[in-house]
Amino acid sequence: MPTLDQIVSLTKRRGFIFQGSEVYGGLRSVWDFGPLGIELKRRVKEMWWHHMIQEREDIEGIDSAILMHPSVWEASGHISGFTDPLVECKACHNRFREDQIEERNCPLSKSECDLTESKQFNLMFQTHMGPVKKEGSEIYLRPETAQGIFVNFENVMTSTRKKIPFGIGQIGKSFRNEITPGNFIFRTREFEQMEMEFFCEPDKADEWFEYWINFSKEWFINIGLSEDKLRKRAHTDDEKPHYAKAALDIEYNFPWGWGELETINNRSDHDLKSHSEKSGKDLSYFDESTKERYIPYVIEPAMGADRTVLAILCDAYREEEVDGDKRTVLRFKPQISPVQVAILPLSKNEKLAETSEEIYKSLKSEFRAQFDNTQSIGKRYRRQDEIGTPICLTIDFDTVETDNCVTLRHRDTMDQIRVKIDDIKNEISKMLKSF
Ligand code: ATP
Fold first, then answer.
1. Are residues 190 and 44 in the same domain?
2. Does 221 lie in the same domain as 291?
3. CATH of the domain at 245
4. Is 68 helix (H, G, I), strand (E, B) or coil?
5. Which phi and psi angles does 199 have, rounded to 5°?
6. In this structure, what DSSP letter does residue 116 have?
7. How far from chain centre, in Å, is Cα 403?
8. Which of 16, 124, 400, 404 has the smallest number of Cβ neighbours within 10 A?
């Protein structure tokens, strides 16, 4: 298991993740995704979308606005209940989440110092809508994407003619003014969520709760996380979110210990009922077959795209010894690796240039391909290993002078095979499947 520092350093060096606003000294706990990081995160989101929405007939996708009518947050309970217990150290004036520190001791000054009584701190970011900052213009940045789904429940159901049970999913940014952000991209104040709200009959909710727990765990294994680093943890009564009837976390064993990747909540009829009451719009469902009207229950698998990326990076990271040298490898599954095949002419010699260019051109429409003709081939292999590229393709003088073949190198075994240029697409696809 790598240390978090090793991950932070590799991701910066290779262009996965940078400190936000770095030229100004950075903004605390804000991170920017670089060229490789955005590819990795896009793959994670695409795999979620594909598996959760595209492949299923019972789930639809939406993309709702970040800014919502302030009444949404009154109805959902976020204005009154989306809080964490905040304490302040009377000596150093740092603030902490009371439930994250041990024995009411200040984690920074360490000494036995006086902490204030805890008070409930609301995590929503507030801003103003319109040019004049006046009473009634307050608005919130959404702290979860879920509410955008609840207020569109009726729109989606009628326009798609869906019947219960069915779900609505979306991916998008959420904002929380966390008291103690940290652990790199694990806990930040701006992050991306992948959430799905599954509307079902109230007496089927427990069954669906189990179903979505297993579905989610399998999804994490499918994107390449090790099963023995994943665990399920049911919430105790006092840690459940204010809206949840039951909740369970899927956790990953990060370098600092177990941390939540996803919560599966049974939100009961809390949200649709509250929005019906507050808005005056009836959000109940009429079941044609039983002639019964009811407010559906909601089971919600809610995961973070950034935390998933961090777990993937930690899981994939290896340091290995090869012929007395150290190599660092990210053993990504090829489906998520930012680059799938690197095209590496052995030298910059112009004899190799034309063929190399042609190969690169023909591959980049089908695979995530990268061209690199700088430095020694050994250094280029190490670089590709470090960014997790599954296949390196080299073009040498034999390619152009004698055999019309190139070499494919497998990232994990480092085995090399010689293949005909005419067959490279097939051979690459075959090799990608072998990981
Ligand atoms: P935590 O207990 O870690 O504060 P939470 O239980 O409040 O998280 P949820 O409201 O269940 O989180 O949100 C669903 C998912 O969104 C989480 O499992 C996590 O992956 C992601 N998430 C929540 N808060 C953050 C954050 N501050 N930074 C990054 N991801 C987050």
1. yes
2. yes
3. 3.30.930.10
4. coil
5. -90, 125
6. P
7. 45
8. 404
Task: Average the pLDDT over 136-157 and give the result.
Answer: 96
Question: Is any ligand 1 atom within 6 A of the Cβ of residue 261?
Answer: yes
Is residue 215 a part of any domain in this protein? yes
Q: What is the DSSP string of 295-354?
A: PPEEEEEEEEHHHHHHHHHHHHEEEEEETTEEEEEE---TTT-S-SEEEEESS--HHHHH
Q: How many A from CA of 55 to the centre of ligand 1?
A: 26
216 CB within 6 A, ligand 1: no
Residue 283's domain spans which residues? 4-70+142-313
The structure tokens listed for 39 are 């590819």
Tell me the pLDDT of the chain averaged across its residues: 95
**380 lies in the same domain as 260:** no
Average pLDDT over residues 367-375: 96
Atom in ligand 1 nearest the alpha carbon of residue 195? 14
**What is the mean predicted confidence (pLDDT) over 420-427?**
98
pTM: 0.94
Distance of CA 104 to the CA centre of its chain: 32
Q: Does ligand 1 lie within 6 Å of residue 41's CB atom?
A: no
Residues near 323 by Cβ (< 8 Å), separated by ≥ 6? none
Q: Which atom of ligand 1 is nearest to the CA of 176?
A: 27
Residue 431 tokens, joined: 């090799």
155 and 45 assigned to the same domain: yes
Encode pLDDT of 186-214 as tens digits.
999 999 999 999 999 999 999 999 999 99
Among the three residues 253, 279, 313, which one is the final residue of a domain in this structure?
A: 313
For ligand 1, whether the C-beta of 343 sits within 6 Å is no
Single out the residue of 117, 113, 73 nearest to residue 92, CA to CA: 113
Using CA atoms in the order 47, 393, 407, 13, what is the torsion angle rounded to 10 degrees?
-100
Domain match, 160 and 38 both? yes
Q: Which atom of ligand 1 is nearest to the CA of 249?
A: 18
97 CA → ligand 1 middle, Å: 15
Tell me whether residue 116 is in a domain. no
- Specify the residue with its C-alpha closest to ligand 1, atom 9: 263
State whether 400 and 285 are in the same domain: no
Kindly report the protein residue whose alpha carbon is nearest to atom 3 of ligand 1.
260
| First vs last C-alpha separation in the chain | 20
